[in-house]
Design goal:
Chain lengths: ~290, ~325
């Protein structure tokens, strides 16, 4: 492989990987406050892209407004999911909650399909499609947007969890829910907040990725799964592990597609996931605290 | 266990209801006005075989698999390729189909079932997608997205079962056997161990239940059920395509378990029959089909976590108690 195609694979891998990382972050945030794997996470990512397409194409809103509205819309969806479907049954066994989130993901997907359509849509690039040439490899401006916005989101979340009282309260919930409740933290509010933040982060990922890869009502399944693979790779519960895991999966997928077979592109992430569950379920950066039986 | 013990167990308890069920199934072709319904019922029975197995895993052991369509598909393709492409006998096809599905289940199950939490769900979901991609992409083997044709009709004792009613009887008989096996299984030491795992893994571990082994066993068993169903499906339709074995079908199977009632073998059959027949009535609203599935899944899980059967019993109990306690504790009562 020559240097330029190596760079090319790396660029596209990092670009897609950043959004896997954001999806993975979404999983992590909900998992940390509730101990729940939210199977509807991918749908928040889809909502980000699709709502932006709807605002932009159907309502004729300018791109920046559409992007912001889409992210806000998905955040609202996250809040609704928590209030309507999770909170009423919060004491149900975990398996029931998992099944509920699976049901929610199907619901969101089919609602978007019915209200909008089954077609594949594209969103305009944020700042043109004139590629920047780097040592013979083309770097799309959108890639820079994706990497930049992902870094900003990551940094903002870090600050939020370290500095703000809400962030600290959410961390407290993740350590010990009962103790957090005893010191006066409203665990209910924190769970609601975690769903909203997680939907927001997912939607940001969806909306910045949409110009590069196209979007449709059913992109959420694969994106969600790859986000989860990123989580496991980085160590479930570790937000920065999830982000790093996402980048790695993106890069491996891109090289796998380029070097081995593009038909099996989507399979690589899961092969990595299964292998990882086999050899190191606590992930690359996780403390070895996954319980084995 | 002595041979006598097994025989008396088969004779008592579940033999009667399963016998009645089989008798009812035998009458069905005479009751149903339209031969088309017989084919729907055949598919319902095939689905029920998978769902009974999945219910052992999901309802009894509390482990979720989002990739059971893959085992169903692996078996359907395996027997199809063995018999149609390589001209092997039907028995060989069956052995390859079931053996392959079981081996693959072992491979997926060993790493994921050792972990507590939702690793099996994600592991099986990823696995299901890999298998689906494989069905689509390995065109010279599976025919790719357009599917595989020319799979021979099931032959028993040298006679091909071209008559749909005859085929239905065979499928109903297999389902009855599966029911008998499952009902006896859950009443055994094995079944109690599974329910103990579902109620509390810690407690089960403390009383000496080898959690990982039991979970793995029930996972492989449910994959074998799915494989048997896949074999019957392939030799019934004579045609298989990847779209029948995707994520969508895996979710449909979960909905069948949940709607019928988790941890109830008969509930699984009811769920499979109900949801296989449902699209026949919803034909007009084809596009809302997935919406209905999603809605059923969420509402059932929120308001009737023990399915249709469990929900009705709870309602009756609540009415009888006449508002003495405002909410009936819907705890972890099983069966």
């Amino acid at each position: 492989m020559d240097a330029s195609s190596f760079l090319q694979y790396l660029f596209s891998g990092l670009t897609v990987g950043a959004t896997y990382g954001l999806t993975g972050l979404g999983f992590t945030i909900i998992f940390n406050t509730t101990g729940l794997i939210n199977f509807a996470q991918g749908e928040f990512v889809m909502l980000g892209g699709m709502l932006a397409v709807i605002c932009q194409a159907a309502l004729g809103l300018p791109l920046p407004v559409s992007v912001v509205l889409a992210v806000l819309g998905a955040t609202l969806a996250g809040a609704l999911v928590e209030r309507l479907a999770i909170r009423p049954v919060r004491n149900a066994p975990p398996i029931n909650l998992v099944i509920i989130t699976i049901g929610i993901s199907i619901l969101i997907r089919s609602i978007v399909m019915l209200l909008w359509d089954k077609d594949t849509h594209t969103l305009p690039h944020f700042s043109g499609t004139q590629p920047i040439m780097v040592a013979g490899a083309a770097l799309m401006p959108q890639s820079l947007w994706i990497l930049g916005i992902s870094s900003v989101v990551l940094y903002a979340l870090r600050t939020f969890f370290r500095k703000s009282i809400f962030g600290k309260a959410m961390l407290a919930c993740s350590y010990q829910r009962k103790a957090a409740w005893l010191v006066g933290i409203s665990v209910e509010h924190m769970v609601l907040l975690s769903f909203m933040i997680s939907a927001l982060v997912g939607a940001v990922g969806g909306v910045i990725l949409a110009p590069m890869t196209m979007t449709s009502f059913d992109v959420g399944i694969l994106l969600g799964l790859k986000g989860f693979a990123a989580c496991i790779l980085g160590g479930l519960g570790n937000p920065f592990g999830a982000a790093a895991g996402g980048l790695m999966i993106g890069v491996l997928e891109s090289f796998g597609a380029g070097v081995i077979s593009s038909a099996y592109k989507d399979a690589f992430a899961f092969i990595i996931l299964l292998l990882l569950l086999f050899v190191r379920p606590s992930g690359l950066f996780g403390k070895a605290e996954v319980k084995r039986v | 266990m002595s041979r006598n013990g097994i025989l008396s167990r088969l004779a008592g308890g579940s033999a009667l209801p399963v016998g009645l069920f089989f008798a009812a199934m035998l009458c069905m072709p005479y009751v149903l006005p339209n031969p088309y319904y017989v084919s729907t019922l055949t598919l319902a029975c095939i689905n029920a075989i998978i769902v009974v197995g999945l219910n052992l895993l999901l309802g009894f052991a509390g482990q979720i698999s989002l990739g059971h369509a893959a085992f169903y598909g692996i078996a359907a393709y395996a027997t199809g390729i063995a018999t149609a492409t390589y001209g092997l006998s039907m028995g060989t096809g069956f052995l390859i189909a079931v053996g392959l599905a079981a081996a693959v289940a072992l491979l997926v199950g060993i790493p994921t079932l050792k972990l507590t939490g939702h690793y099996l769900a994600m592991g099986t979901l990823g696995f299901g997608i890999i298998v689906y991609i494989f069905f689509n992409e390995s065109i010279e083997l599976t025919g790719g997205p357009s599917g595989m044709v020319g799979i021979p009709r099931l032959a028993l004792f040298g006679r091909e079962l071209w008559d749909d009613t005859e085929y239905f009887y065979v499928v109903a008989a297999v389902l009855s056997l599966v029911l008998l096996l499952s009902l006896n299984l859950i009443r055994s030491r094995f079944g109690r161990a599974l329910m103990a795992i579902h109620t509390s893994e810690k407690a089960a571990m403390c009383i000496g239940v080898d959690i990982a082994r039991y979970k793995l066993f029930v996972f492989v068993l449910s994959a074998i059920y799915a494989a048997v169903a896949g074999f019957l499906y392939a030799h019934y339709l004579g045609f298989v395509a990847p779209s029948s074995f995707g994520f969508h079908f895996s979710v449909q199977l979960i909905v069948m378990v949940v709607v019928g009632g988790m941890a109830s073998v008969w509930g699984a059959v009811a769920g499979a029959f109900f949801l296989t027949a449902l699209p026949e009535f919803l034909r007009v609203f084809e596009s809302v089909e997935t919406l209905v599935y999603g809605g059923l899944l969420v509402l059932c899980m929120m308001f009737m976590p023990h399915g249709l059967a469990g929900g009705l019993t709870a309602l009756v109990r609540k009415m009888r108690r006449n508002g003495q306690r405002p909410t009936a504790p819907e705890g972890d009562s099983h069966v």
